What does this fold into?
Amino acid sequence: MDELNRMSVDEFKKAEKTPLILVLDNVRSLNNVGAIFRTADAFLLEGIYLCGITATPPHREIQKTALGATESVHWKHFEDPIAALSELKNKGYKIISIEQVENPTFLQDFQPNTGEKYAVVLGNEVEGVSQEIIHESDYCIEVPQLGTKHSLNVSVCAGIIIWDLFVKMNQR
It folds into this structure.
């Protein structure tokens, strides 16, 4: 691992972060939660807000896929996801829900604004992002899909969204 030249947890906590927070809206699978933590660590995200029934660390099932990322990535739990969004809006974050809606912005067409901070909401594996959250969102982004299925696994979707926003935010 030393040859990979990865930072320590302490170095991670002190490092400048990508101005992006993930909000998990009632994500059921602990493996998905762990995988999302690991992706957040990989791209130096500011943190993850775990809302509603979304499980929180420490938990053995989260650790299986997080592989220690729960120690590096800042996280908070909120019973009510609207309270999480309220806190984020008060801190100047723009809210992006990842959901299939009428007249969405497709991911490839979304261009983040320079200097803006974003909170990305990912929804429940069956129900998606709640309508209440969609109403509170500044943007609704859809990942285009060409196959027979109508959705992606939430942790896979998180990886696609994070990578796309990370690249676009760092091209300046």
